[in-house]
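User: I want to check something. If I give you two sequences, will you return the structure for each one separately, not as a complex?

Assistant: Yes, each is folded on its own. Here is the first sequence with its structure:
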Amino acid sequence: MDPLDIARWQFGITTVYHFLMVPLTLGLGMTVAIMHSMWVKTGQDRFLRATKFWGKLYLINFIVGVATGLVQEFQFGMAWSEYSRFVGDVFGAPLAMEGLLAFFVESTFLGVWIFGWGRIRKGLHLAALWCAVIGSWISAYFIIVANSWMQHPVGVEMGDDGRPVMTDVWAVLTNNTAIAAYTHAICGALVVSGMFLLGISWYHLWRRRHDGVDTVGADGRVIVGDGTAQGLDKKGRDKTDHGLWIWSLRFGAIVAILGFAGTVVTGDVQGKLMYEQQPMKMAAAEAACHTGGSFSVLSIGDPGGDCDDVTPIIEIPGVLGFLGTGEWGADMPGITDLEPQYVEQYGATLPDNPLYGERAGQTIDYVPTMWVTYWGFRLMIGLGGIVAGAAVIALWLTRKGTVPRSPWIMRLAILGITAPFAANIAGWIFTEMGRQPFVVAPNPDPSGIDQVFMYTAAAVSPGVTAGELLFSVIALTLVYAVILVFELFLLVKYVRGGAASAMPELAQHDDAHDDTDRDDVLAFAY
């Protein structure tokens, strides 16, 4: 067992799990802030219920995200110490800004928002939430700045000890790769939150129809019930409850559509930057073995093979050139042409250096795992398109104020919540694995810093053994599995409980000793 492979598996597993929380936190935080703003402006109860219900789910997701995110930074010193030494001078600034500025702003004002209900003025309370959300967006930017420097190192010069030294922090913070990646990630997060709202709201509207609370008239329009006849008003399932879910559903659909449109625009920018900065990643994403301008809709081949095993089945002439350069039909360099260039510039084998240990002298494969990049790229785009189409259909089906009674459509709506999560994860896996064999990709910019790069084989900690890493992989995976079970349990519990799960005062109890009917801020927080 190679410690490098195990270390990569560990980082991949923990990072993908952590990233399940990131887009939902970024997107849902913004939508909750909008809901809270609507309540402060209009005073309508449906917006208060929306703020507290979706805010409850936001808090659950936020705290799990914080807990799982801490492991990422510890891994830099545990499994990737050589990498930490190499990038330390550069990463110090953005990660310090993220931790000392953005994260503290985010967590401090979120605490004010949680415990400020009924204790501070509405305007200040709302401002606290906006500060927390903006802090989380700024925090995400600093993290992506660090990641984008690995994709496109700028603002540095090589020191005498062979490590990059930052000479221009502004160049690092305004890296064009970072700006493109950040806007793309934010738009993807909005798609996640939009489908989250849509799927859960669909479920509650379907339950209202299934339980007979809402009915449909001869014209097909909803007749909103108050739950009195069914004895359901004690669970907050009154007419205001209907307003909460139908508004949340349609708002979520609009957010998902706008978010997808944003990902298309920002993704196009990223594709053109990728062609300039990491042409091998672009070629692998298209299984473009030979130079040309045709876009592969479908190619088949041996997952463990090379270009000799790839056979294009469906191609669209000219599209690939447009994606890479903006010029229809332009030729894009293929893998067979790029690989000799990489070998000539960076060498055919790993250097004879103690950093590489037993891997020194091994042949370097500059082509990333093609089936991962090819299908990851298509899953990201395909699932995003499906989500946008589903959101449009949802707007049409709910135009008369409710959802169809079909349980199958309801199940599809709930299943649709997972689609943008999968699209986001596929995109990040493509981004990171497409950079291999580099952990810091070389910068082809002719500014004189093109030799700032690091092979992944040199980044792993030299003092760790395969057994130690295997133990940590198993331990972290088991711990994360337990955390996942608890998070899903909490989310499902409060989703099923509806607005009353975040507002106990909506649940009217006859038991005089039960104090859960109080409007207690601790009940909302915990």
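And separately, the second sequence with its own structure:
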Amino acid sequence: MIPEKETNIEKADSQQTKYGSFALFDIAHFINRILKNWYWFVIMFIIGYTISWVYTKYYAQNVYASSLSLSVSNNTASYFTPNQSINFIWGQGGNQDGIYLKKMLLSRSHNEFLVEELGLYVNYSTKGAIKSTYLDKDDVPVLVEVDTKHLQQMEYPITLIPKGRNQFEVVLPDDGHSTNLYSYETEGFTTVEPYDKPERRIITTGEWFTTPNLRFRLIKNPVTPKLDLQNVIVKFSTVNKAVNDIVSTISIDFDKEINTIMIITKKGYNLNGTVSFLNKSVSQLQKKRQADKLIVDKNTDAYLQENLDKIRKKLDSSAYVLNYMKSTEKLYDIKDRDEKSLNSIKELESKKADIESKIISLNQIKQMLASQNFDKMISTTAAGFQDGMFTATVSELKELYLKRREMALIYKPNSEPMVEINKLISDAQANSNGVLRGYYSRYLEEIGKIKGKVIEMNSDLNNYPEKERKYLDAEREYNMVEATYNSLLSRQNETQLKIIGNQSDISVIDAAKNIGQSPIGPNVKAVKAGIIGGLLILPILFILIGVVLDAKIRNIKELINATRIPLLGVIGNNTNETMLTVLDQPKSSVSEAFRGIRANMRFLSGSDAGSKVILVTSSIGGEGKTYVSINLASVLGLSDKKTILLGMDLRKPKIFGDFRIDNKYGISNYLTGEVEMSKIINKTRIPNLDVATSGPIPPNPSELLMSEKNIRFIQDLKNLYDFIIIDSPPVGLVADSYELMKYSDTNIYVARHEYTEKYMLKMITEKYHNGETGNLGLVYNDYNTKLGYGYGYGYGYGYGYGYGYFDEDKNYKEPLLIRIRNKVREIFNKK
């Protein structure tokens, strides 16, 4: 059944805009293209699998990880080991000392020390036939000692080849020697004068190898390596790069149940290297932690001892004065003495003396801080308090001052980095001074209160005689000095106990160890999936781009929905050598499709009688309008209908060749008056089919086709023939066919599968729905069924393949997907 023609000409504008508009993306065509190009996916899969296998086998470097767990106790604090009272400075609660240690382990200063101490700026590897492998120091026969006072070239591969008897050949690259060399002393680069390429030579262990861009010597490894290496490749890196590489591979976590237990993990290409670094890193941290605490405690002990010596002299002097008054003035026994008031005053003045000694310690701390003399810094316990914020701030200031000294060698004073670090130092100074001012205010407030109480109690002592008051003053002075001495002595004893009992508050629970851990990377499955998936996406992308950019008609259903023009039939691919398919292959599916078109034309006009003049056109040449015209005329002629085929495509005549007719005289000759009508009408081997060829190409084809003589010519033929088939020019190139349509009864528009551009149908679609052309039907030509996909629009075509109905069925082989579908159906039907 033909889709019903639109009869309502007055459509809404929104509906009209849809006519001739095709979808940007055809999902059905996209899927068909993917299935059609299945072999590319197989090829890409094989290539991807091969690449991933070669990569993981010969090029991918295994990544290993080793871990170390340690416990952090919080028994002491110093400017370099803040305690639990600094919750607010790190913005967290709980294990603050552990968080501080985490920052220390990841700090530049700690890792820079390890890099320089362990020579981690020297990297070892070996290269086989294909793959390079990173090595640890324990894996190489000799270690490289770098002369840090000599300029060195970074990332410059130095190959050491064993030659026996502690000799190694030093092989350098043929090119790549640079004039930009690095100094390990200043940690900066220097440009030198150009020099000749360094030559390779053989050196013995202990012998210095010197070139303009290198200076090092080989030292026999005290550890006997387990590997027998054919070569060792050495590269030097900057201290900064070595530190950054190390920090980026370290992760630190805390145990979920006991947050004072730290778990440190390091990743690397060599398992022994990660184990060695972790153990040495924590060992160094323990030593530094212990040393830092000793520095502050020893400074505090010395400071307290110095003050004790001074107070001791004052105490001796006060004791001498008091004893003198007792012996000479006999004032050791005062009558009616108010012991309660005197004891209260003694207690208050002892507190005052203790606070004053703390203020003196505060002054000392403030002075050391202002002078940046951190090596002489004393503990805040000497001033009678422990403050985590102040401790952390002092530690931060120390690091900032050191960093500023380093930056001053590189940056100018007014540069942005220097301005930024000066701001950080200023903020840290403000924080530390703010803490000290807070304790100053607290101590001064307490002293003020004590003084007020003492003055109040002294009023009761004004009644004593002058000599007795002098004795009481001397006794109070002695008590104050003694209280200060005892307070300092007590603080010194606490400090000395810390020094005696000083030990690291970091204890290793499980040291890092090589127990044959498997590599943690690369993720072989993810690599394979990524490579294979990436290659499989490529053909999909190419197909997708092709589908999006493709403007050709490939979908019958979309063609009908977009144009809303009745579909008369679908013509398959012509396998005949000529265009006379209906005559040469009458039992073919294509011939049957033309018979279906003949039958469907009745629905356009309502009866056979109303379809005497049938015009066939298309958008451009090559879409098969002549082919359709010839075979449609053949079908009508074979059905005992007197039919004539007119070749009115005067610009590109074709019909005469297939019918073997001489094109010397044709329609163009008749329209110009050269010959009579009978001269141009040719008989064919079909009794009821005549053909009038176009004749020689005229200079004015449009004028001839639109002439009154041509119109009379068609009218005269209608009296002689049942059907007149006009092979007209393409409407996408010239407008001749639109004029001829005024005199035709039925119009057939040919669109060719995967050839006709979608935009070419817009004009004919608009004219059809605007009522400018009537009785119009579509013929879809050259549709290929090899893929085995139908669209549900056969109309006399496509329903016989594989069933013995047509001639082609004897050589027909069902497509693979169809065979699979049928097999599945067969299996399910059995069940």
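Because they were folded independently, the notes below concern the second chain alone. Confidence is low (pLDDT under 50) at residues 1-16, 82-94, 787-805. The first strand starts at residue 64 and ends at 72.
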